[in-house]
UniProtKB/TrEMBL annotation, chain A:
InterPro entries: AAA+_ATPase (IPR003593), ABC_AA/LPS_Transport (IPR051120), ABC_transporter-like_ATP-bd (IPR003439), BCA_ABC_TP_C (IPR032823), P-loop_NTPase (IPR027417). This is Branched-chain amino acid ABC transporter ATPase. PANTHER family: CONSERVED COMPONENT OF ABC TRANSPORTER FOR NATURAL AMINO ACIDS, CONSERVED COMPONENT OF ABC TRANSPORTER FOR NATURAL AMINO ACIDS-RELATED. Keywords: ATP-binding, Nucleotide-binding, Transport. It comes from Celeribacter baekdonensis B30. It holds the Pfam family ABC_tran. SUPFAM superfamilies: P-loop containing nucleoside triphosphate hydrolases (SSF52540). Residues 5-253 form the ABC transporter domain. GO terms for molecular function: ATP binding; ATP hydrolysis activity. CDD domains: ABC_Mj1267_LivG_branched. Gene3D superfamilies: P-loop containing nucleotide triphosphate hydrolases. It comes from the Bacteria.
UniProtKB/TrEMBL annotation, chain B:
GO terms for cellular component: plasma membrane. This is Branched chain amino acid ABC transporter inner membrane protein. The lineage of its organism: Bacteria, Pseudomonadati, Pseudomonadota, Alphaproteobacteria, Rhodobacterales. It comes from the Bacteria. The keyword Endoplasmic reticulum does not apply.
C-alpha cells in the first residue's frame, strides 16, 4: 500500500498550552486509522492542523510527498485532503443536491464571466456535475431526497449527505470527525458500511475521530491513542485493547 | 417545509415567463400617462438597488449597509462624466457600474479583514455617510448642496428627458442585469455565496475560496447598484446629496425585507410594491408615512419570508434554486 498522508512531528501551542505535541504517523491508501483519546486529548486540534484551520507551531504534513503545511484550508481541500465536521457542516438552507454540488465546486469549469453570460462551456460542466451528484446520491439511496432542504433531514441522513458531499470530488484522504455521534444503531451500521466501502473499494485513506468504541474496533485497521496532545499508543485494535498506557489515560492510574 | 420541484415543463415555462415579463412591459407606455410612466421608471431602478442589496445581506449574509453609498457613487459618476466630461449618458452606465463595483471592493475589504456582523454594519454605514459628506464638500465637482444637473442630450433624435425613451433604456438594462444575476446565482458561484452564509468554515473545506466569493459578491452588488445610480441620475435629471442618505438606505432595506431576504423574485416584488405604495397613499395627506409603516409592518408579521414566499406557495415555478439543469 502506498503512503498518502505523512504527518511528521506536528505540534500546536497556544500561548503556553500545548494542544498537540509532536505527533507523527502515516496514512496509507485504503487504510482506516482511528484517533481516540479522552476529551482535550488534541484529536480535533490534530484534524484542524492537518486541514489548515490551525497553523502548526512546528512539524509538517505531506500528501503524496507534497507539503501541505503552509496552505490555507481551501487549498488543502483542493489538494485532496477533505474533512467533515463534528457538529455537522451541511448548509441547511440548500437542498441535498445543492449541498453535494458544493463538494464539486473545484471540479466545475467556467470562469466568472462564462457563468455571468451563461456561456455553454459553464452550462455543460454544470450539467455534467449535476449528473455526477445525482449518481452519487443514488449510490447511497438518497436520490429521492435530492430536492429536500438539508436542514429538514434527520441527523443520520445529514451525516450521510455530508460524507457524500465530502467524497464527491474523489479525494484520496478523508478526515471524519465523529461521524457516528448521535446516530441510531441502524444508522451507525450504515455509516460503518460506508467507511468500509470508501476504504476498500475506492482506496480512500481515512482518518477517523470516534468515541463509539465498537465502531472504532470494527472499522479501524490501526488506532492512534492520544492524551494531553501527545501520542501515547499506536497499534491494531487488539494491541490497543491490551495497552496499559491506554487504560491509564482513560481510567486513571491504578 | 417540503417543497415540490418544478418539472421540466414548468422550468421551460419559467424561462419563457422570465422574458415575457419585460416584453409585455414594452407595451406599458401605451397604457400609462406620463406620471405613471415616471413611477414605473423608478421601480426599474429600485429593482436593481434592491437586488444588489439582497445579494449581500440575504444571499451572502453579510450585514453590510453600503448599498446607498454604491448608489450615490453611481449617480454622481454618471452626472459628473456627463456634465463635466461631456460623455454621452448611455456610456456612463457601465462606468458608473465600475465605480460602484470599486465601492463594493472597498466595503468587502472590511469584511475580509474579519470585521463582521454589527461591526461591519457600523463601518459600512459610516462609509455611506462619508460619501454623502464627500458630495457636499467637493463643490467644484459635485455642485455641493446645489447638486449637479445632467446636460440636455438626445438619443435617436429624442430628448433624454422623455420618460418613454428612458423607460425602454431602463427596462433593457434592468432585464439584462437581473438575468445575469440569475445566471450567477444558479451556478457554482451562487451555491458558494449561500454556503458562505450558512457555514463559512465548512465552505473552505470544500475547496471553495471563501475570501474570493465574498469579494466577488460585493463587487457584483456594487456594479448592479452603481448602474442603478446612473439610471437614477437621468431619471431625476439632477443629483443632490440628500438623495443618498439614511432614508434611501432604510427604504431599500424595507424593499429587501418585504420582498423576501435573499430572493431575486423578492427583490423585484419588494421594489415594485414599495415604489407603488406611497403613490397610492398620497390620497391620505399627512397619514401616508403612518400607513406606509403599518403596511410594511403587517407584511413582515404575516409573511416573515416576504412576498416571494407567498408566490412560492402558489406554484413551484417560483421556487429559487442554485443550480441549472437545462443547458
Amino acid at each position: 500500500m502506498s503512503e498518502l498522508l505523512q504527518v511528521n512531528g506536528l505540534s500546536v501551542r497556544f500561548s503556553g498550552l500545548t494542544a498537540l505535541d509532536d505527533v507523527t504517523f502515516t496514512l496509507e491508501e485504503g487504510a482506516v486509522r482511528a484517533v481516540i483519546g479522552p476529551n482535550g486529548a488534541g484529536k480535533s486540534t490534530l484534524f484542524n492542523a492537518i486541514s489548515g484551520y490551525v497553523t502548526p507551531t512546528s512539524g509538517t504534513v505531506h500528501l503524496k510527498g507534497q507539503e501541505l503545511t503552509k496552505l490555507t484550508p481551501h487549498e488543502i481541500a483542493e489538494q485532496g485532503v477533505r474533512r467533515t465536521f463534528q457538529n455537522g457542516g451541511l448548509f441547511p438552507a440548500l437542498t441535498v443536491l445543492e449541498n453535494v454540488l458544493t463538494g464539486l465546486h473545484a471540479q466545475i469549469e467556467g470562469s466568472f464571466l462564462d457563468i455571468l453570460l451563461g456561456r455553454s462551456k459553464a452550462l455543460k460542466s454544470e450539467a455534467e456535475n449535476i449528473h455526477r451528484a445525482r449518481e452519487l446520491l443514488k449510490l447511497m439511496s438518497m436520490d429521492h431526497m435530492a430536492d429536500t432542504r438539508a436542514g429538514d433531514l434527520s441527523g443520520g441522513q445529514q451525516r450521510i449527505v455530508e460524507i457524500v458531499r465530502t467524497v464527491a470530488s474523489d479525494p484520496p484522504v478523508l478526515l471524519l470527525d465523529e461521524p457516528a455521534v448521535g446516530l441510531s444503531p441502524v444508522a451507525r451500521a450504515q455509516m460503518m458500511e460506508i467507511i468500509h466501502r470508501l476504504a476498500g473499494e475506492k482506496g480512500v485513506g481515512i482518518l477517523l475521530i470516534e468515541h463509539a468504541v465498537e465502531l472504532v474496533m470494527a472499522a479501524a485497521d490501526r488506532i492512534l491513542v492520544m492524551a494531553a496532545g501527545a501520542r501515547i499508543a499506536e497499534g491494531t485494535p487488539d494491541e490497543i485493547r491490551e495497552d496499559r498506557a491506554v487504560l491509564e489515560a482513560y481510567l486513571g492510574h491504578s | 417545509m417540503s417543497t415540490t420541484m418544478p418539472t421540466s415543463r414548468q422550468r421551460s415555462l419559467r424561462t419563457w415567463a422570465f422574458w415575457a415579463v419585460p416584453v409585455l412591459l414594452l407595451l406599458t407606455p401605451l397604457a400609462t400617462n406620463a406620471y405613471t410612466q415616471f413611477i414605473v421608471n423608478g421601480m426599474l431602478i429600485s429593482i436593481l438597488v434592491t437586488l444588489g442589496f439582497t445579494l449581500v445581506i440575504g444571499n451572502l449574509g453579510q450585514l453590510a449597509f453600503a448599498n446607498t453609498a454604491f448608489f450615490g457613487i453611481g449617480a454622481y459618476a454618471s452626472a459628473i462624466l456627463s456634465a463635466k466630461l461631456g460623455l454621452p449618458w448611455i456610456m456612463t452606465i457601465p462606468l458608473a457600474g465600475a465605480l460602484g463595483a470599486l465601492g463594493g471592493f472597498l466595503a468587502s475589504s472590511a469584511a475580509l479583514r474579519g470585521i463582521r456582523s454589527y461591526y461591519l454594519a457600523i463601518i459600512t454605514l459610516a462609509f455611506g455617510e462619508l460619501m454623502r459628506w464627500a458630495y457636499l464638500h467637493t463643490k467644484p465637482l459635485t455642485g455641493g448642496t446645489d447638486g449637479l444637473p445632467l446636460p440636455r442630450e438626445t438619443m435617436f433624435g429624442i430628448s433624454l428627458s422623455d420618460d418613454t425613451l428612458k423607460f425602454y433604456i431602463f427596462l433593457a438594462v434592468t432585464a439584462v442585469l437581473v438575468k445575469a444575476t440569475l445566471n450567477l446565482l444558479r451556478s457554482r458561484f451562487g451555491r458558494a455565496v449561500m454556503a458562505v452564509r450558512e457555514n463559512e468554515v465548512a465552505t473552505a473545506s470544500l475547496a471553495i475560496p471563501t475570501a474570493r466569493v465574498i469579494l466577488t459578491t460585493f463587487i457584483w452588488s456594487g456594479f448592479l447598484v452603481g448602474c442603478a445610480g446612473a439610471l437614477f441620475a437621468r431619471h431625476v435629471g439632477h443629483v443632490f446629496p440628500e438623495s443618498f442618505g439614511m432614508l434611501h438606505l432604510i427604504a431599500s432595506f424595507a424593499m429587501v425585507l418585504v420582498g423576501g431576504l435573499g430572493s431575486v423574485l423578492g427583490a423585484v416584488l419588494g421594489a415594485v410594491v414599495l415604489t407603488a405604495l406611497p403613490e397610492y397613499l398620497r390620497a391620505f395627506p399627512g397619514m401616508e408615512e403612518l400607513f406606509f409603516g403599518l403596511i410594511v409592518a403587517a407584511v413582515l408579521v404575516a409573511m416573515p419570508m416576504g412576498l416571494a414566499s407567498l408566490l412560492r406557495r402558489l406554484s413551484p415555478i417560483f421556487v429559487e434554486r442554485y443550480y441549472r439543469e437545462e443547458s
